[in-house]
Amino acid sequence: MTQRALDLARAPAGTTSDPADSELLERITRVAAALFDVPMVAVTLIGSDGHIVKSGLGLPDAERRQVSALHTATLAAEGTLMVADAAGDPRFADDPWVAGTASVRFYAGHPLRSTEGAGIGTLSVLDSRPRGLADQQLARLEDLAMWTQEELDRAAHAEMLSYLRRSRSWLRTIMDGVAEAVVSFDATGTIHFANAAAEATFGAEPDGLLHKSIVTLIDGIDWDRVARRVGVVADDEKTVIGRRLDLPGRRRNGQLFPLEVVITAAHVNAETVFVAIGRDLTERHRTEAALRQSESRFRTIFDGAGTGIALTALDGQLLDANPTFAEMLGYSVEELRRLNPLELVDDPDGAEYEPLLRSLRSGRRNRYRREVQLRRRDGSRIWVAATVSAVPGSEENSVLGVVMIADISKRKEIERFKDEFVSVVGHELRTPLTSIRGALGLIGAGAVGAIPSEASQMIAVAISNTDRLVRLINDTLDIERMEAGRSELDLAAVSGASLVQQAVGVVQATADAAEITFNCELADVRVWVDADRIVQALVNLFGNAIKFSPRGAEIRVAVSDDGELVDFCVSDDGRGIPPDQLESVFERFRQVDGSDAREKGGTGLGLAIARSSVEQHGGQIWAESGEGVGTTFHFTLPLANQPSTLAPGAVLVVEDDVRVASALREALQGRYGTTRVASSAEEAIAAIRQSPPRIIVLDLVLPGADGIAVIDELAHDPKLAATPIIIYSAAELDHAERERAQLGHTVFLSKVDASPEHVCRRIAQLLGGPVRLA
Predict the structure, then answer these.
(1) How far apart (Å, rounded) are the C-alpha atoms in residues 583 and 624?
(2) Residue 310 has pLDDT above 90, yes or no
(3) What is the distance between the alpha carbons of residues 574 and 288, in angstroms, rounded to a whole number?
(4) Disulfide-capable partner of 130 in 85, 313, 364, 588 (CB 3.0 to 4.6 Å)?
(5) Which residue has the higher pLDDT, 237 or 303?
(6) Is residue 42 predicted with pLDDT exceeding 50?
(7) Are the CB atoms for 277 and 249 separated by under 8 Å?
């Protein structure tokens, strides 16, 4: 028997995998009992803790569990051991089988041995009376022992085969779960094992690769030479063993495909066994080809784009630039790659860009846009609009920046001309137009005598067009002033209902002419506003509702509050606004239908002015509508709080630029007591928790956490949420960014247009007190 077979044979009775094996041993013991006319027969094996009775006929349980010296002596004997009367033999008189309940007197046993000759157990016949066996009977006992030995061997071999089958099944299950193709073969190249991945890779049926040659699967290797050299020269550069190779694989249909394979060799019982682990590279090659094509396409677009494009690491290194950007600045692409992008910025406040870059690196922002002047190589300047977008890099904590640069020099020149034109309009055209309007009105009223009816009609047309031109000029000047931050607010606590009533009074005549009525539900609330500006916003909303409502319709106006904000709501039953234009209607000169300007009049600036006015007060405005269902405009304003006496430490300036912070501190000195300055969001939050300020001047771009963190801190405390905030930043905020920064009464001022003195005036307006000069 092999060691494995011996271990299986020594298992306790009844534990073999096949019940028939135990039955066979029981049959042997029954044959022995009948053949030798004995009441007791035992088949014993040597276990780890002594003899184990594998099958015992007539033997009491107590003796079956005890080791007997009779078996020990039998194993030491050359042949059969026979003891006629064990009780009279001093070697066995005290043996548990002799002195115990079995009362064994007669014993005859033959050793069972393994194929290597080692003793593994005994077959013995026993009787409770003294007796003996003839020579012929002893020969039969030896025959029975050989039969028992053979049966034990057979059972063990059967169990071993079952174990091998289970092991092979386990191996197949495990290997079929491996994604790579695994094939084993011998030195002749004959395949003996292939997992499911190998069968799928080479297009074979289940077990279709077995007994085939490895050369039918992989091209390009002399397998006979490989087999001969295994273990001869381990470091031979020409050997393929243990090396990662890219070779052509061959499918069952003859199709070749790229295969990455590693072949290893092992010696098992003086036989060389090869294992090949491979991976189909078809998809990888396809992906790599697609990436190369994508890279080629990107490079074509990148190099051929008419807009400047740069790729930066957001750590000050310019990684790449396209020819358009290089030509724009008069550099070569190679020269630009050696420059820090900030070195190209011609801006005395260039230090502000480093915090912006930090915010991109940290993920707090994903893009920002700036209009800046860049220095060309020859020293001249060029205005550009630069949009920087953050892109996660391939390395950990690496962030790339894609910078799109558009030359806006011509636009800036046009804006300069526009500003000059607006100035001319303001100083040169509005006064004479007003005079012309007055003169036409006097003539039309008969101040210079009666005029023919035809002339009267022409004068009426001239008056109407003059009024329209004056409104356009006034609206243009108003919106320019508001968006440039040059429009001052005269703030006071005003009844929301009185604002609505004033606005209705302005448009009442127009509404009556169109048979339009107003239905107002006005809560008794007060807001802290510039009354004229909000009345103007309401007039624009009412005029818009009258213009697009059918004759005889009703306009519903409501004013309500939620304890923090006051909501003004204006609803009509007009034709409505398409959902995709609910935001664009607030743009300058924007009409839902281009024919509206001709048919219904208007400058296209009313809603834009309304938005500027509301946002200047720290509120929000939006539209709700759909085609054919009417339109509802909402805007919110902060509730009026009673102005309190300004105390020391009333103003908190949150600014990391030392120059700007110093300028604000100097401008505020002596006006509102001590001015506190915080250079980061963390310092600002600590200062707020120590002593809540009456007002905050806040830059959104800060080192570490940005200004939004300060706003979030205020929002979490109801007592601080109403703190007025002046967002004073060079950052250009779009509508979404303004909404994110909005909290209670929030005013947005640009560092480009608003001076520190202007900030002081806005503080006085927000707090409801006069500016106290030092």
Answers:
(1) 10
(2) no
(3) 58
(4) 85
(5) 303
(6) yes
(7) no
pTM summary value? 0.40
Q: What does the alpha-carbon distance between residue 466 and residue 440 come to, in Å, rounded to a whole number?
A: 9
Distance CA 506, CA 539 (A): 7
Q: Which residues contact 459 (CB under 8 A, 6 or more apart)?
A: 440, 443, 444, 451
| Closest of 635, 654, 138 to residue 355, by C-alpha | 654
Give 508-535 pLDDT, tens digit per residue: 988 999 999 999 999 889 888 888 889 9
Give CA–CA dist 568/555, Å, rounded: 13
Distance (Å, rounded) from C-alpha 398 to C-alpha 416? 41
Q: What is the CA radius of gyration of the chain?
A: 50
pLDDT value, residue 315: 67
712: amino acid identity, one letter: D
- Spatial neighbors of 757 by CB under 8 A, at least 6 apart, are 667
Q: Are 383 and 399 in contact (CB under 8 A)?
A: no
Provide the mean pLDDT of the chain. Answer: 79
Q: How far apart are CA 661 and CA 698, in angstroms?
A: 10
Beta-carbon contacts of 455 under 8 Å, excluding residues fewer than 6 positions away, are none
Please measure the distance between the N-terminal and C-terminal CA atoms of the chain and give it in whole angstroms. Answer: 112
Q: What is the pLDDT of residues 338-371, one digit of tens each?
A: 877 777 876 544 455 665 666 676 666 677 777 7
CB 537 within 8 A of CB 557: no
Q: Are residues 721 and 691 in contact, defined by beta-carbon separation less than 8 angstroms?
A: no
